[in-house]
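User: Before I run my own analysis I want an independent prediction to cross-check against. Here's the chain; please return only the C-alpha cells and, at the end, one sentence I can use as a sanity check.
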Amino acid sequence: MEHAVRFDRGFLASLGLSLAILAAGSYWVFGYAPNHRQPQLRESAAFGVQPSDLSRISRISDVIVEGVVKEVYPAEWTTRNKSAPVNVQEMLTNDDVQLRTPVLLEVWKVFKGRGVPGTVMFTLPGGNDGEVRVSSPFGLTLEPGQRVLVFLSQAPKNAGPWAQISPLYPQLFFVIEGKDLHGPDRTVPRKSVMTQLGFGG
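Assistant: C-alpha cells:
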C-alpha cells in the first residue's frame, strides 16, 4: 500500500542551481487509503527546470557526459535505518531524509571533466521503494539502454547522507533520440544544444 503526499523540497544552498531546480520542482508521493479510493494530492507550484540558455548549467557542472544507462538500481532511503520515515511529511523539513535512485552510466563521450572513468554513478532525487513513490522534479525517469546527455555536479563535503550513495548529482539531463534531446520541459534539437554549449555539432 503506497503512502502519498505531494511536496516541494530544497537541498543545500551550496548545491547552486540544483537547489533552485529541486526546490522549485515538484515531488509527488502518492498514497492510497485503506479503501483504495483515489489518492488525495496536495498541490504546489512547479517551475520549469530546463532553461533556454544552458550556459550557466554548463559552467557550474563539474562533469558533462554522453552515454548509455547501464543500470537503474532500486531507490534508497538516506535515513539511518535505510527505511522510509514513519511520517513521510518529514521529507518536507529534514534534508537528510530523501529517497534517491542510483543510476550507472556507461560513458561514451566526455564534454567536460577530467579523469572521468568509463562508467559513472549518480543519483536521481525520487524513486519507488514499493511503499512510497516520489517523482523526480526533472519529470523524467531513466531506464537501462537509454542514451543520455547529463550535466553532473559534485556534492560539497558537507552534503547530507544522500551523497554517500554517490557524490554526483544531475543539474539537468536529456534523453537522446536521434537528432533530438528530450528534456524535462521540452524537446530541443541536439545540434542547437551542442552549438550553444560550444561542443560542436
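Sanity check: The radius of gyration is 17 Å.
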